[in-house]
Amino acid sequence: MEIQLQELIEQIKKEGVEAAEAQAVSILESAKAQAEKIISDANAKANKILADAKNENERTVRSGEDAIRQAGRNLLISFRESVTKELNAIIGENVSSVYSSDALSQLIVKAVESWLSKPDVTDISVILGNDDLARLEASLLSGLKAKMLNGVTLKANDNFDGGFRIAINDDGAYYDYSKDAVTDMLSNYLSPKLTALLKEAE
């Protein structure tokens, strides 16, 4: 009887230990699975954070590069406008300088001679501002003396500032050699060349 009781106690202990070991194994496996899930979730989260940070960094870099490119374009446009403005000012000063000198009468004589060489031109009117006509009348009359007999007349008109206009055959149209017209013409001629030169320098 005592042996049976001892065997029963041993059996109970054995079953208890086995149950405890099984429970411990189950707890360990569950803890391991949970730990693996936590690590997996943490890795996924870390990877997402890294991917988001990389994307944000790339966006920031692209945005910075775009801003630098735009700033460069703006600077180049501003520089071109500044150079063009300076060029126009230089052209205007030079045209004014020529038109305020005695060279103006020589230009007028050459222009009249050029127009008179055309067979269909029979009458030429040279239109000047009042001040220019008073200043240049003597030299113009001297230079155009022979031509004055061939239909060349001098007229005063203060509707423009500097330079002259030539009307042909009294048809109401005229060719504008005023200071503003010549400055615009030279600027329009030189601006594309200047722009091309600036583009070559880029």
N to C succession of SSEs: HHEHEEEH
- Structural class call reads alpha+beta
> Spans with pLDDT under 50 lasting ≥5 residues?
none
Q: Termini distance?
A: 110 Å
Q: How much helical structure, as a percent, in the residues?
A: over 70%
Strand order of the largest sheet: 2-1-3-4
Total count of strands: 4
Rg over C-alpha atoms, rounded to the nearest angstrom: 49 Å
Q: Helix count, per DSSP?
A: 4
The profile of the biggest β sheet is:
4 strands, mixed
Shape descriptor:
rod-shaped
Beta-strand residue percentage: 5-15%
- Mean pLDDT over the full residue set: 77
Textual characterization of the structure:
With 202 residues, the chain is an alpha+beta fold. The chain has four helices and four strands; from the N terminus they run H-H-E-H-E-E-E-H. Strands 2-1-3-4 form a four-stranded mixed beta sheet. Helix 1 (2-99) runs antiparallel to helix 4 (179-200) and helix 2 (103-116) packs across helix 3.
Condensed summary:
This protein is α+β, with helices and mostly antiparallel strands and 202 residues long. It has helices spanning 2-99, 103-116, 130-148, 179-200; strands spanning 124-128, 152-156, 163-168, 174-178. The longest helix has 98 residues, at 2-99.
Question: Topology of this structure?
Answer:
Layout: H1 2-99, H2 103-116, E1 124-128, H3 130-148, E2 152-156, E3 163-168, E4 174-178, H4 179-200
Parallel strand pairs: 1-2
Antiparallel strand pairs: 1-3, 3-4
Helix pairs in contact: 1-4, 2-3
